Every structure is written in C-alpha cells, then in structure tokens.
Target: FtsK domain-containing protein
Amino acid sequence: MSHQQATSKPASHVISRKARIWPEIPQDKVLLPSAPQLPQGPQVGTLSFVLFNLLGMGLYVLIFSTFKIGGGAQFFLLPFIAISGMMALGTVTNFLVQHFSTRRKSKALMERYEAQLQKIEQRLQSLHWKERQARLDLDPPLLPPRPEQQLYQGLSIVPLIERGFDEQDTQLWARKPDDPDFLTVRIGMGSQPATYEIQAPPTANTFPDQPSLEASLARVQASQERHSTLKVPITVKLNEPGPIALVGTRDRLEAARELLQAMVCQLVYHHSPEEVRIIILTPRSQEQAWRWATALPHTVLYDPRQAEEVVDESSQRHAVAIGAGAILEYLPLISRELGRRELLLGDTRREEGQHLLPHLVIVVDHFDLWQDLDQPSAPQPVVPPHNSIQRTGSLEHRPQLSVSPLKRPEMTLALSGPTTLGVSVLCLCAHKADVPMNSNLLVDITHIQDDKQAGKESYTLQAQVRQLCPNPPPAITCDEVDGVPLQALSYFSQRMFPLHVNRTKRLELRTQVDLRTLFEPPLDLLYYDPFAYWSDPMFRGRDAKGKEMPMMRIPIGTKIGDEIQYLDLLKDGPHGLLIGQTGSGKSELLQTIIMALSIIYRPNEVNFLLIDYKAGLALEPFRHLPHTIGFLSNVSSPALIQRFITMLRAEATRREIRMKEGKKSPRIIIIIDEFAEMAKQTDSVLDELFTITRVGREIGMHLLLASQRPEGIIATRVRDYVQYRLCLRCASPEDSREILRRVDAAYLPASIPGRGYLLHGDNQLDLFQAARVSIPVTLDQLYVKPNGIETPVDPTNDVLIAQLAAEK
Model:
C-alpha cells in the first residue's frame, strides 16, 4: 500500500470500541504415561538346573560305558539316564516357552506404551502451537518477519503495520483499563514457560533394570523439556512502580532507541487515546528520530478541561517536545498535571489500586552530555555595566537545558509517585549510571557473537530484562529484540493520524456545566429575548380552574449521563436548605437558582428577597433584576435583623389578606446566605422563620437558607422545617450526616466546585453538578436596547442580569 493510499482513507475515521475476543490460551494438565511393568523372563537358575541334569546323565553314561557291570545292574542305570535326560529336556522346553511368552507380552506392552507416547506427543505439539499462536495474536510483531527468521515458522502472523486500521480491525485499541494486559507492550521474542502443565509419571525412574525402557524414558524426558518452554513474545508492564529504563551502551544505543520506538508503536496500536496519552521529551539531535510521533492521536496534548466532544486534531498541539525550548515549556505542564492528579487521589473515593485516566506515558530520550546539554561556560572577565547590554545576543537568550529532563524537579513526582497516579516513565540511557534511582525495571540491550560467515563476524541483539529490587528473580532473556526503521515509523503514524475514538455518552458527571445549555434552545446572549423564555410551556402548567400558572420548576445542573437536574419548589419544597463549605460552589449555586428562576418566570410571578449576613458579594449583582423587591447585606447588627423580621411579618400579613380577598401575589423566594451566623445574633430569627414555614406554601413564600456549616443545634431545628436539602462538599463526615443522614458529601472532590447532592421527595438522593452563570462579558455586549434605545449597563454585572434589568 502506498503512502498516498494510507492517508486517503474513506471519510469515516471514527473508531468504535468493540467487544474483545480473547484468543484461547491452553491451561491443560498433561500427564505423561507411566512406563509399563514388563514381565520378568526365565531365571538363570533354570539353566543351572538343566546343566546339573545333563552332568548327572553324562556321569551315568560314563559309568555305564567304562565299568563292566554284570547282571541286571546295567538295566538298573538306564532309567536314571532316561530320567535325567527327560528332566533336562523338560526344563529347556519350559525355559523356551517362558522366554518367548515374556517377549511377546513385553512387545505388546511396549507397543501400547509407544502409542500412548505418540498420542501425548501429538497433544503436546497441538498445545504448543496453540499457545504460541494465541500469544502472538495478543502481541504480534510490528513488521513482517524476515525470511531467515525461524521463530514464526508454521504460525499465522499479521504484523501491526499491515492491519486494516478501520472499523473491521477488532484488535485496534482493544486493551481496556480492566484488562490484565493493559499497558503491557512487547519488546521481542524469547523463551517462556508454557501455561499448560506437563506432569511426569510417578513411575518414570522405577525400572532401572529394564534396558528396553531406557530409550522410551529418554524420549519422555526430552518431550517434557521440549514442550515445557516455548518461543513467545516477551512483554513488560508499564504500570508498575518506578520508571522503566532501556540501556544500550556504546554501539547498542541506536538499537535501544529503535526498541523504544517499537514499544511506543505497540502502545499506540493497542490502547485508545482516551485511556493512554504519550508525552515525548527528546533532544534536538534526535528530531529526525521522533518527528513521526507528532502525527499520533495519543500525543495530542492532554488538557483535563477539554470538552469531550470530538474536535479536529489537526488544530491541537502534540506533546512531542524536541529541543531545550520545547522541553522547558512542557515541563511545567507536566508538573501541574501531576500535582492535579495527586490532589485528586487525596480527595476522591476510589477503589484500591484504581488508576487515574488517561494514563500518561512520558518518554525521555537520551541526552548526551556534550551534544545535547548546555555546559557551564568558563569564567569571563568582568565587563563594565554599560557594555553588558551590547553583549546580549541570541545565544544568551537561547533556552538552556543543563541536565537531562529525568533530573529536573518537575519530573520528581512522575519518577517516584504511586502507581495510582496514572503516570509511567520510559527512558533511554547510554550508561547504567544514567538509570534513574527509582527505576524498577531495566532492559539491557546486549549482543552475542554468531558464527563467522564469509569471513565476517555477525552479532545478534538480545535483551536482559531485570527487576531492580532486593533478591530479584532471574532475568528474562529476549532472544530477538524488536526494532523498526524510520520509514516504517512514518508510515505507521500517517495511518494512525486520522483516527479518533467514537465517544459515546458517558455515564459520569461533567466537571463544568453552563446554565445556558440547560434550556431548549440553548440560551444565546446575542439573541436573548426574555419574553420567549418567560412563555416556555415546559415550565408552565394549569391550576384546577384551567388557568395558566408557573410550575416553579427550574434546571440547576446535570446528573450522570448529562441528564438535567431539576429543582421543583412546589413538589420538593416549599422550603430548602443549602450547605457547602468555602470553595464548594455554594455562592455559584445560589446565583444559578436565582438566574434560572428569573429566566423562566416573569417578575409578576416570582419575586426575590435577598439577604446576606456578610458583604453580599454573591447576591449583590441580582439587586437590579426586576424580580428583586428587596436586598439586604451586612445584616450583622440587631437593628437590621429586627428590620428584616418586621419586613417578613408585614409581607406575610399582606399576603394572607390578599389571599382572603381572592387576589394572587407573586411567589416570593427569600434567600438568606449565612443564616447560621445571623441566627447566632438573634434567636427570634428562627422563630419567625418557622412561623413562615408553617404557612409558606399557602401564602406563596419560599425560604432557601444557606450556610457553610450546619452549626449543630441550629441545623437540627431548621432541618425539621425544610423539605429539600442541597448539600455540597462538607468539612467533615459529621456535617454531611447532619444534612443527608450519610457521609457522602464529606468526600466530594475539592477540585470540582459545584458537585453536590440534592435530597428531595421521598428521601430521593441525586448526585449532580451545579450549572454556572459566570460568563465572560465584553463591553460591547453590555449595551441592551429596551424600546430601541441603547442604554449602558454597569459592566460589573452579567449580561443576563443587564438585559433583564432593562425590562424593569
């Protein structure tokens, strides 16, 4: 496939994550057959008995032929001669019968044993091939094997560079965080123990006196040794504690760099950019070696504030820092991200061992002391101050890097942080003395000398994978180290460049929610018309007489899966409590509630009475709304508190009178910020508030009491009179339990303000992310046109407040 074909793919470059189909790796237990118990042949004593019989018979014959024995004595010796002969003949016959019978039985047993060995041999060969094929399916090579390579003979191999890189490629980005091989990359081929178990027979060495079994037993032992290990890919895990160092001393440094590049390619192919991001720090001298990485989707600079929507990756920066200037620019970004992750680890509830995503892999190339690093210059003579300005030049302003990035303080947390931080470091070193102190794994590139061919010495590259720990396990030998030429790297990266993940709707909470996006259609400041939203039928209903009425239902944020979180002041209320410590987003949530009510409902339907015990900075901008009928701040003196109580009494009395006359009044939302501090000053405040809570629903008065802490007995008294509770991050589990009857709010992340719980209805508890109303405003946007006349608005106020105030 040409380069042009690779880059001119079909229009669809979105890759959907698929169900992973795992190759079957055998876990069988193979019991080698026991050696047969061969029958014993005729004993040697039988032949001795025959020999003695023959000697006796010969003695009788000698006596009979030598001595002249008269009479019937000769006939007396004939029976003894005959008996001895018969006994010898019978013994010989019995010996031969036993001998041939034993041989026949032994042959049958050995044939059966050989058949069992052959069957076991075939099974072991099948398991051996099956496991090798499965291991290579999991970790295939990047490039096609060379013709002279024998490691892949008889196996089906599709190298990564020849894969489809499209929707039909089921292995592309297949590894997920819960998979056992997540962040596992291949470095080459070597011998590893088989997963299937070969059990030797218990009687393998119990027949040393049977020479016929020696060859078979040797065959069993050879088969066991041959199939207990196999040539498979050697892999290393990147999510282990400490950096992983690749060392290539002297002339092996380039081979180590090629291995590092091959590992990056393996990482890129098997892992999605959603879950793995790569940062590369390399000297200017290796620009050609790493320029290809700027086309990888995994090197797009990771920004946790980035929205989840798919964007054009060509407009994004890639985290491939080449040269001192780029490295010094990226190191603070790395340090800041690591600090953010450390903060998240301390503030969020996570399962033990759970990592932060995306996992960051920082690749650091070797920095040569004299070629890539700036050396301290020799002392210069003192120059008068008036000449020092003339001496400044580009060399003095050039960014300098005097040590390797591995020794920079910005990398300290990456090199020594816990695995749950979600950061791994891959570094290339020219000497073992350059290996970082906290390294856990060392991949040492070595070479062995082959036989001389045509008068030339050839070498085969190997790698020794060693764990750097006390009492380390034996080193793993990689017999054939992976490597990839520069042309293949460029081809690989160009094929990966147009790919990005098909992001589906994730069942998690957003960290930033804009209030404007919670309306349909989304609120546009340039074309905002208050009357259009004041008439939205989604937030209006009808009473028993069929007359239109406000539902008092407003959006305040989003729940899991981007579902909108609503607050219903009629069904959930009428009164509520808002608790959140400093920095939790309490003031923002109060502003969201006020702004949502003012956007949806008319001033003749909803009014605000805003009271802040302190300076009133959070509520002060809303005093210009047409809905606001009263605003009090710095309500710290008993006189002001008494004025507020008197105002509440008068408003409640007025509403009761109007209700008896059959007249309707706008619903009034009374928001009191830092009510606990106010209640400490005057106990009668709580009594007056409780009086209102009893009749609040009938007379259209709603209370929303906000404070940083529950404050013990005050919260206990208030809790019994409110119907819904908004609880952001609390200072302690006890405070959370005081409000929600559970400790969850104490463990909300401090780095995400606005995250909280809504307890409403029949003890229904919703986790939500509060929407924000803080919108950057330009001076041109602060001029509104009521009745066609341009009117300047206070530039400290929000655009929405300004436009609503213009309707006053």
Observations:
- Residues 73-138 form the longest helix (66 residues).
- The two ends are 69 Å apart (CA to CA).
- Residues 173 and 271 are 4 Å apart (CA to CA).
- The chain has three domains: 23-236, 240-306+315-371+400-450+457-501, 515-776.
